Structure formats: structure tokens, C-alpha cells
Amino acid sequence: MSRCLLPCLLACLISSVWTADQGDGCQGSQAEQFPVVMTPSGPIRGSMMQTRRGRAFEAYRGIRYAEPPVGELRFQPPVPIMSYNEKVNATTEGPACPRPARQGYYLDEDCLRINVYTPSHTSGQRLPVVFYIHAGGFYVFSGRSDVAGPHYLLDRDIVLVTINYRLGSLGFLCTGDEVAPGNNGFKDQVAALRWVRRNIAAFGGDPDLVTITGCSAGSHSVFLHMLSPMSKGLFHRAISMSGSPIGSSLSPHHLKSLAVRQAQLLNCSTTSSTEIIDCLKTKSWRDIGYSLRGFYEFGFDPVRIWRPVVEKDFGQERFLVEQPLDAVRAGRMHPVPYIISQTRDEFFWMAFYPLRNDTLRSKFNNEWETVAPISFVLPRDNVSAQVTRLRQVYLGNRPLANDAESASRLGKLYADAIVGFPVHRLANLMCRHSPYPVYYYEFAYIGNHSHYEDPVTNKPTGAVHHDDLIYLFSLRYRFPDVPATGPDADLVDKMTAIWYTFAKTGDPNAYGGLDLPELSGLHWPAMTPDKRNYLEINKQLTVKTNLKEDRIKLWEELFPIEY
Ligand SMILES: *[C@@H]1O[C@H](CO)[C@@H](O)[C@H](O)[C@H]1NC(C)=O
Ligand SMILES: *[C@@H]1O[C@H](CO)[C@@H](O)[C@H](O)[C@H]1NC(C)=O
Ligand SMILES: *[C@@H]1O[C@H](CO)[C@@H](O)[C@H](O)[C@H]1NC(C)=O
Ligand SMILES: *[C@@H]1O[C@H](CO)[C@@H](O)[C@H](O)[C@H]1NC(C)=O
Ligand SMILES: *[C@@H]1O[C@H](CO)[C@@H](O)[C@H](O)[C@H]1NC(C)=O
């Protein structure tokens, strides 16, 4: 692993105090403290930060990659910025896009921002670029450094890019006609990728060696970029963590009912698409962002609300032009070496809320056919045969009670429905139809922290959705940084080594002369249709086969496709 060179090491050691908001400022002269990079779009001033191992790196945060999507540009595709009128001040954190957040959290509709972290823009090297698309169901989170912190990955020789894209109705409203053809949040991501293609060399990144990676909603996004005519040529490897848009239902052509719901929540007329949009344009971004609660149909379900749409052609630049399943099966994609993953327990914890709530639990018991399609993101029509079978197999046909047995059974159903089955399907499709290797992993490690911690003991009880992020990014909004030594620290070294190796070579194994002791002995074979290998990531890295297939078999029977 390359270390901080002497001058920056000294500079950083002097300033042992950091604060997340001010960006780990290192002492030094003005130029050292606030580096300026000349990009083809203009000059950008950044700041210095420091990794968990004490390496100083440059941070350029909150840079606009598209015009503020406000006023007449609300609900429109992004308008890229090709040149900056004056030196961009990228020394502090930008806002997150509108969404529910605690009081005082920095939100703004002017949120199309990109963050670039580089070991050095002047070294003359062209480093692999890792482009991270954040999680959050297309309605929460951001690319800000409190939720996607660079402090671990920048111990590797990579350039890390994180982004915001518009969320909820502001990003994904789709009436299915010319008024709102949809997918603007994905078009934002494309605009950010185009910005990288144009500007990243100035930061020391290689525009011909870009790895797109994302978790959950970001994982859906990563895969869709392989299909999108808009994203062609903008990336060279891909990593999808815990999310796939190919599951039990096809992608819709519009999200009209969500547009109507949004209008109703803000007292807008719903008689036509034009009225909906015109009225919503007069509302504050805060009211739109904060209306998320109004979209839940059963407790906090469904976890997935806005989705990618297959866009009809109105002459607009289209992000998604056909069913993802059809595209993959016909090989109509721009495939690249691919890592796909899920965690062992995923969304198991979603069982607790409805089980502990008497009203919801009895609804589950008495109105299963109505509720199950909502909670398990199934097609809404004609699935009574399927949900009856799911109840037989997962719940043993027993009524749900507020107890451990029910939580375990219902938890597995949530986990498989929302992530396990769609990810399985995507991995199996890609290993058949992509000419590049597909590497599959299961994240099974349980460390000091987890995105679900037991409310009584405060201890992790599973390897859940987003938990692999704990070992790739500092997540200071919620967890302390992983300490310098110990098992969690070892896993940070392994995970960042895998990401680095894959970004550089397209193979997660450290062959080819990369000196990565963390990965010595790793021989992670690609998955093939006949030998469905995967890597179990736990304290050890272990190659296994047939991930969760005993449970997934049922789903293949209930929702069959031709692979
Ligand atoms: C950059 O922006 C920050 C936050 O608004 C401000 O404190 C700082 O003075 C600005 N720097 C320059 C050089 O304008
Ligand atoms: C919508 O109208 C209702 C009833 O008139 C009112 O209570 C509510 O505050 C309005 N909501 C918004 C967001 O304007
Ligand atoms: C139970 O769920 C219902 C429906 O979401 C909600 O209105 C109610 O407040 C919940 N009860 C408790 C005790 O949380
Ligand atoms: C309902 O689903 C069954 C299979 O589960 C299928 O045979 C039938 O054609 C479907 N009916 C409609 C109206 O889609
Ligand atoms: C958990 O954190 C403590 C204190 O920082 C550390 O000593 C220990 O090694 C960590 N445990 C694991 C599993 O990493």
C-alpha cells in the first residue's frame, strides 16, 4: 500500500485534530492547504483531508456538475455545466438533495454536486477512478462525506468520486407522457459520469479506467448504466452491492399513480399531467422532500417506491429504452467486468416493526393477499397463488406472532423478496449473457457495528443491508471510524484491497504483480451458469457455491423466466 510521502505526513501529523465538517484540515501554507486544480471546465479550489492511516489527500467537494435544477428546470433533465465562470470554491461540503432529514441538516434543491478525492492531482499518474452511486431507495441519503466518507478508500491509489442525484418525486416523477417521461435522477448520474469523463484527468484520474459502484438503489443504477444508451463508453468495470431491478415484476412505463399521490399530498389538482407538474412547480422543495411518509402504504412499506421506467420515445434523450430483462437476454448492453453481491441477512430487520405493532400484525394475518404484494415488492395484480405459496413455505402457514420464531421466518421473506431473489436473478443472467467475468459475493461478517443493532443490547445481530459499506466508507453520520487494528480493521484492508485491485485490473484477485498482502491466498473464481461460485466475506474469505439457492428455488418456480 502506498503511504503518505514525508512532507504531507509531517503536515498532517502536526494537525492531529480534525472535524468532519471542516474536512480534516492539515496545517501548511495556503497552497498546500487549499490546492487548486485546473480542469477543462475551469479552476477548482479544494482542501486537504487525512485517511485513517494518516495519508493526506485532496478533497474537492460540492462541485456543481449541472445547473441548479430549480424553477423552470425542476422536473427537467439535468443541464450540464461545461465551464465555470469563476474559480469554484469546493473547500466545504455541499448540500444533500431534498429528503426528510433532521433539523439543521444541509439540504438544498441546488444539489447536483460531485465530490472528488485524490491522493494528488500533480503526481502525473493516471489512477483508477471509483465512482460511487449512493444507496437510499431513490429517496434518501446523498454522496456527502458524512454518508460516503473517503477516509478508507483513499489509503489506496485511486481517485474516488461520489455524487448526489435528485431523489423522490424531484428525481423520478414520471407521468409517462411528454410532460414527464421519467428517469431524471438517472440522467443526473449520467451527467456526473460525463463530467468525470471530461474533467477527471486533471485530478490525476484515468478517464479510461472508471469503475462504477453502488449499493442498493445505487446497485440498481450501476446495472442500468450497462443497458443505457446514455452511459455507453463512460465506465469500464462495475460493482453492484445488494440490489437489482430484475426480480418478480417487469419495469413500468410510467409512475403515474405516484405522481398523482405527490400532487394530492400537496393539494394539487390531478386532472392532467400538465396540471400536476405546473402545480408542483409552485411548491417548496422542502414540502416535496418531506412528503415521503405519505407514500408508505403499510407501516414503512414498501421500501421501494420510485423505480426506473422504460421510457417512451417523445424525442427526448432516453435513459432506459427497453425491459432490462429483454436487453440482458439479447446481449444488448455494454458489459464490463462485474462484481455482484448481497449480504447474509439483508432486510431481515424489516419484520420487527409490523410484528411489534398490533394493527399491522393483524393485517398481515388477516389480509395477507393485500399486504404481501406491498411489503415484498411483488406485482400488484394476480399474485394470490404466489403469495399463498410464500406464506406456506416461509411462515409454515402459521399466524404471525410477536416472537422470535415469527421474526426469523418473516425476516427471511423480507430479505429474499427485496434483495436475495432479484440479485440472484441478475447474477445468473449476467454470467450467461455478459462476455466478461461475473464475481459474486456474500457479505457475512458481523463486527462492532451494523445498520441494524438490537434496541436492547445495542449489538449487531446480523450482516444486513448496507453493512459492507462500513468497511469501505467512513460513515460518520452514524458510526465511529473503524479503529486502526482489530478484526474490523482487517476487513477494511481486505475490502479496500478488493475494490482497488478490481478497479485497476478488472479482476478482484491480486494476481498480476500487485503487492497486496491482504489478499494473498485469495483465488476467487468467476461465477458460471454451471459452477455458481461465490466468495463468502467473513473473518476469512472462503469460496463456496450456490448462494442461498435452497431458498431461491421457490421464487424461480413462482416467477419463472427463461434465462
Ligand atoms: C469557500 O466557502 C466557504 C463556505 O462558504 C467559506 O467559508 C470560504 O471563505 C470560501 N473560500 C473562498 C476562497 O471563497
Ligand atoms: C392541504 O390542504 C389541507 C386541508 O385544506 C391542509 O390542512 C394542509 O395543510 C394542506 N397541505 C399543504 C401541503 O398545503
Ligand atoms: C402501528 O401502525 C399504524 C399504521 O402504520 C400506526 O398508525 C400506529 O401509530 C402504529 N402503532 C404504534 C404503537 O406504533
Ligand atoms: C394470472 O396468473 C396465472 C399464473 O399464476 C396466469 O396463468 C394467468 O394468465 C394470469 N391471469 C391474468 C389475467 O394475468
Ligand atoms: C471493536 O472496537 C474496539 C474498540 O475500538 C476494538 O478494540 C475491537 O478490536 C473492535 N472489534 C472488532 C471486531 O474489530
Task: Put the structure in a nutshell.
InterPro entries: AB_hydrolase_fold (IPR029058), CarbesteraseB (IPR002018), Carboxylesterase_B_AS (IPR019826), Type-B_Carboxylest/Lipase (IPR050309). By secondary structure, the protein is of the alpha/beta class.
Describe this structure in words.
Residues 1-19 form the signal peptide. This is Carboxylic ester hydrolase. Its EC number is 3.1.1.-. There is one protein chain. The chain has helices at residues 6-14, 30-33, 168-172, 184-199, 217-227, 256-265, 273-280, 285-289, 324-329, 352-356, 358-366, 368-375, 384-395, 404-433, 487-505, 549-558, and strands spanning 36-39, 42-45, 47-50, 56-64, 88-89, 113-118, 127-133, 159-163, 205-215, 237-241, 338-343, 438-443, 533-537, 541-545. The chain is 30% helix and 14% strand. The model is unreliable at 1-27 (pLDDT under 50). Helix 6 (256-265) crosses helix 7 (273-280), helix 12 (368-375) crosses helix 13 and helix 14 crosses helix 16. With 563 residues, the protein is an alpha/beta fold. The chain has one domain (8-558): Rossmann fold (3-Layer(aba) Sandwich). The strands form two sheets. The protein has an eleven-stranded mixed beta sheet, with helices on both faces. Strands 1-2-5 form a three-stranded mixed beta sheet, with no helix packed on it. It contains 16 helices and 14 strands. The structure holds 2-acetamido-2-deoxy-beta-D-glucopyranose (5 copies). One 2-acetamido-2-deoxy-beta-D-glucopyranose is lined by residues 266-267, 287.
